[in-house]
Amino acid sequence: xxxxxxSPVTRPATGTDPxxxxxxxxxxxxxxxxxxxxxxxxxxxxFQVDQINDLTTGNRQSAQYLLTQGNIRFLLETPLTKxxxxxxxxxxxxxxIKDIAFTVFDAEAAWKQAVRNGGTSAQEPTxxxxxxxxxxxxxxxxxxxATHTFVSRTGKYALPEVKQGAQFMPGxxxxxxxxxxxxxxxHPCGLKxxxxxxxxxxEGKMNRWVEWYEHVLGFSMFKHFDDKDISTEYSxxxxxxxxxxxxxxKFPINEPAAGKKKSQILEYLEWHxxxxxxxxxxxxxxxxxxSVAELRRRGVDFLTxxxxxxxxxxxxxxxxxxxxxxxxVKEDHQRIKDLGILVDADDEGYLLQLFSKPLQDRPxxxxxxxxxxxxxxxxxxxxxxxxESLELEQExxxxx
Length: 400
What we know:
400 residues; alpha+beta; 2,3-Dihydroxybiphenyl 1,2-Dioxygenase, domain 1; 2 domains; ten-stranded mixed sheet; eight-stranded mixed sheet; 11 helices
């Protein structure tokens, strides 16, 4: 067994902007049973069960499964003791996302800068090292239960090495033979990377967290949607989209708005112990039709889009594309309808998107599958159809 040293770290910062993001290092889920969750995400979404850190590697506190697909890395963590912080969170919130981690040049320097900017520390800088190199992590709290961890890597733990299948960090080992891994290599779902992550916060708190991302992490506002943009007969919400300086990742932040009935944001909060958190991850694909077809074949439950949506979508989308001199949607229109995919366009091009139903029994976390053909927006033209579909599901659950 490889020995792993864990110690506080103190290293001088480089001249690089300490908050410059290199990549989304990983997304950490707290789950009740990581072994079963790994099987679900491998079977339903085509992830490779790549590495593990558990009792067999000397971890007496938690079991951690690293799942990979394209440049997506999910870390599923289950507590093995009642004192592990994940134990209480799973009781309160069910399975969900705890942390979205960023690869940076110097994790300690990034953490220090974020704290100087007004952030609250969630974990002081710590380095795990062995003969292969080191991984330094440090974290700050964001909205509700969520955190952002800064990760810097050296030696064989450098991100380019990890992307090629190297050990994720000290303490992990290859998962070993697993029939689903070979099946997924032969039948890919085509998911490439995390496009954006949406956070739900309480009514009246959206601007507070917009300012947090501006001041603490140096993000800037990318888009703004109000209740006139995102509303139906029954519910509404407001959203502001924050983007990192290099637009590596975007964070829409949603809050509920007044409506006749309960919004999806309020439903999320009520089933999440009235605590803000990550509502959904958008996973990018280069081929929406192929990805959605494969995911549907695997049994992934997606929202049902009303038939009437397709009666008007092409006139709206084609008119927008012509207005801005862009080519028409190249994907087969009938196939898009058959797969229930949403289409939208703006001045930069078009996008294709579809949303899964909740991934667990509580109506909280879900995934979006998105393909961008120039458009960098979020499907504003689809909001009404999407929300009507969500409201149908809320009504089925008795939560509208």
